[in-house]
Design goal:
Blueprint (H helix, E strand, L loop, with lengths): L21 E3 L2 E3 L5 E5 L5 H20 L6 E4 L3 H7 L7 H10 L1 E4 L13 H8 L4 E7 L15 E7 L9 E2 L4 H13 L10 E2 L5 H17 L4 E6 L5 H18 L4 E3 H5 L11 E7 H10 L6 E4 L1 H14 L7 E5 L4 E5 L16 H13 L3 H16 L2 E2 L1 H4 L6 E2 L2 H13 L4 H25 L1 H7 L7 H4 L6 E2 L5 H11 L3 E4 L8 E4 H9 L10 H4 L6 E3 L4 H11 L3 E6 L2 E7 H11 L5
Parallel strand pairs: 3-4, 3-5, 5-15, 7-13, 10-12, 10-13, 11-12, 16-17, 18-19, 21-22
Antiparallel strand pairs: 1-2, 6-7, 6-14, 8-9, 14-15, 19-20, 22-23
Helix pairs in contact: 1-11, 1-12, 1-14, 6-7, 9-10, 11-12, 12-14, 15-16
The structure holds NADP nicotinamide-adenine-dinucleotide phosphate.
Length: about 600
């Protein structure tokens, strides 16, 4: 794309003062006086944009004492563009300037109804290749929420923005195209489905998946985050969703190997203790993730997911923290980024100076963070809950908070600016936040250290190997013990098998309840006089912890064992039974391989 010079733009005026953001060595370089593009948007757009520009400027002024300043460049999309560019809602020069300025922010836009118009947001996404839709979701004190502990939600969701069922490859029932595709699928691919089905295609590529996951992991690295969770439906859609998961792990391993570990390593190699400076890469099946975000939201930090999952999940999580109206967002390419309010134009409130500017405001906070201007971003993040907790809110929150004072959009901005300009000890607040974060991480770590298996299952992890399923707390007996004593141990510990220490040849054994029933009770022997060695099974069938659940299931089925022991070197470290495998498959289905 060639970039027009300022003189070539019809209506956009590049500010004479200020410098453009550049990209050097693969990173954006932000001057102290950058030119940033903005689109005020339609409907309520002008009201919230006016308010937010004042708040952002005030925070920057306060944080940098005038050394840094944004030089705003108005650009046009939507109805305002249509008025200026002869009915064109999405002028080429706007797309070009957004690319040229690298960073910009936009209010909501009306997509004209009727043929001939692409959705403006889709046009932006496609033309600028904004492949990552980024939604941070966290709770702000004072904001009404349906959760008991909304403060536990603090995630940043990266949703793939260009492929999946959104690729637009669909064939309507009854059309020749539909028939052609259906015939091919039936005749050539031997696929079976009902007559007259509408057909849609879900492309998920290695390139598209990897660049999205790469961005999510890089974000986690840059922002000291604890984990990245790949959310997918790979147990059902193996070659799209499952492939997304596998490619995600591949990026982590190949490109971020020195700063990441897998959850398997966390529980196995590191026994639940997260090594300093390492980010845990884990994955969850999409439907389990919806439960987990309600039950244990603090287990999740950065999320990377495919397009459709991300669409559902981002709104669901935002709603959990009462943040639908204030949820911010951004669409980001490798460097070019367009930050945006996530709600629409709410036309009935246009020009009433009434609505909540929160969504656009926090999109601007994201933008400041993206630019590396975290001090200004933090000022807004810190004063916002103070103002809301004081009950100074716009109409939408006022109707949910008893005793709140409803104020206009501009008055809400005034209240924030007043706080920003007042003395605020940013460093002290940051230290307190950091201390809280460390405390919470420690608590999670203690849970993992104390009850690794329970934690893993409770947190929704799909077991991958026998190491994930096995019972670790083994009870062992010496072969010289009586069977009666072994039975007492089983009853006391509520277990159905017990490991028998190595015999003179160094061979481990196992004694199960079934052995006792078949070899003692059925044969009318006395448990008090029979030695464990006499009825224990030796040698045991051992597999390494990495053995896949499928392999273990095959061994159990083929050889008719009811359990396998899990070994590390020549030491037995756990037992996995057919019941464990049954329960795992029943609960999670098959993880994609
Ligand atoms: P909407 O504009 O988001 O409004 C739906 C409702 O959400 C409003 O009536 C209002 O609820 C509440 N709301 C939205 N923004 C608010 C704010 N800043 N403060 C407080 N409450 C807010 O959705 P819509 O009515 O479905 O869509 C209207 C137009 O927006 C359509 O043309 C659509 O295409 C467009 N749209 C654009 C974008 C975008 O540009 N990103 C996104 C979505 C929709 P109450 O009525 O309960 O007060």
């Amino acid at each position: 794309m060639t970039t027009p010079t300022a003189a070539q733009y019809r209506h956009i005026k590049i500010p004479a003062t200020g410098e453009k953001i550049t990209i050097q060595n693969g990173k954006i370089v932000v001057p102290h006086q950058p030119i940033i593009g903005y689109v005020e948007g339609d409907g309520i757009g002008p009201d919230i944009t006016r308010a937010c520009l004042r708040i952002w400027d005030a925070a920057i002024e306060k944080a940098y004492g005038g050394q840094r300043k944004i030089h705003w460049c108005e650009t046009f999309l939507g109805e305002k563009a249509a008025g200026l560019y002869d009915g064109n809602y999405c002028p080429d020069e706007t797309l070009k300037v957004l690319q040229d300025l690298v960073v910009s922010i936009k209010g909501p836009l009306t997509t004209p109804v009727g043929g001939g118009f692409r959705s403006l947001n889709v046009a932006l996404r496609q033309d600028l290749d904004l492949y990552a839709c980024v939604r941070p979701v966290r709770h702000y004190a004072g904001v009404p929420s349906p959760l008991k502990h909304p403060d536990k939600v603090d995630i940043v969701l990266f949703r793939e923005n260009t492929e999946d069922v959104y690729a637009g490859i669909e064939y309507k029932t009854g059309t020749p195209e539909n028939k052609k595709v259906a015939d091919f699928l039936r005749n050539e691919m031997k696929a079976k489905f009902f007559e007259g089905a509408g057909i849609g295609i879900k492309p998920v590529s290695e390139f598209g998946s990897k660049r999205l996951v790469r961005k999510a992991i890089q974000y986690a690295v840059d922002n000291g985050r604890e984990s990245v969770t790949l959310v997918h439906k790979g147990n059902i859609q193996k070659f799209t969703e499952g492939a997304f998961r596998n490619w995600g792990y591949e990026v982590a391993r190949e490109e971020f190997g020195s700063v990441t570990i897998t959850e398997e390593q966390l529980y196995g190699e590191f026994k639940g203790k997260q090594p300093e400076g390492k980010i845990v890469i884990k994955d969850r099946i999409a439907d389990i993730m919806f439960q987990m975000m309600l039950l244990r939201p603090d287990e999740f930090d950065v999320i990377a997911t495919t397009n459709l999952n991300g669409d559902y999940l981002s709104d669901a999580i935002a709603a959990e923290v009462g943040g639908m109206g204030i949820a911010p967002g951004a669409n980001i390419a490798d460097h070019v980024a367009v930050f945006e309010a996530t709600h629409g134009t709410a036309p009935k409130y246009a020009n009433l100076n009434k609505v909540n500017p929160g969504s656009l405001l926090f999109s601007g906070v994201m933008m400041l963070e993206y630019m590396g201007w975290t001090e200004a971003a933090d000022l807004i993040t810190l004063v916002y809950p103070e103002v809301v907790s004081d009950g100074i809110v716009t109409y939408d929150f006022a109707r949910q908070i008893d005793g709140a004072t409803e104020v206009s959009t501009s008055a809400f901005a005034d209240a924030l600016i007043e706080r920003i300009q007042g003395g605020i000890d940013l460093e002290a607040k940051r230290r307190a936040q950091q201390a809280q974060l460390v405390k919470e991480r420690k608590q999670r770590e203690i849970r993992r250290l104390l009850q690794p298996m329970e934690e893993m299952t409770e947190s929704g992890r799909v077991p991958q190997s026998v190491g994930d399923l096995m019972t670790r707390s083994l009870i062992t007996v010496n072969g010289d013990e009586t069977v009666e004593n072994a039975m007492h141990l089983m009853t006391e510990n509520n277990i159905s098998s017990i490991v028998v220490e190595p015999d003179a040849r160094g061979i481990w054994g196992i004694l199960t309840r079934r052995d006792i029933v078949s070899k003692i009770v059925r044969n009318n022997k006395s448990p008090s006089t029979t030695k464990v060695d006499a009825i224990a099974t030796r040698p045991v069938v051992s597999v390494p912890a990495e053995t896949s659940i499928r392999e273990a299931a095959e061994m159990i089925a083929d050889a008719r064992y009811s359990r396998l022991t899990v070994a590390q070197g020549d030491k037995i470290i756990g037992i996995v039974t057919e019941t464990d495998i049954f329960n795992a498959v029943e609960k999670f289905g098959w993880a994609s391989e």
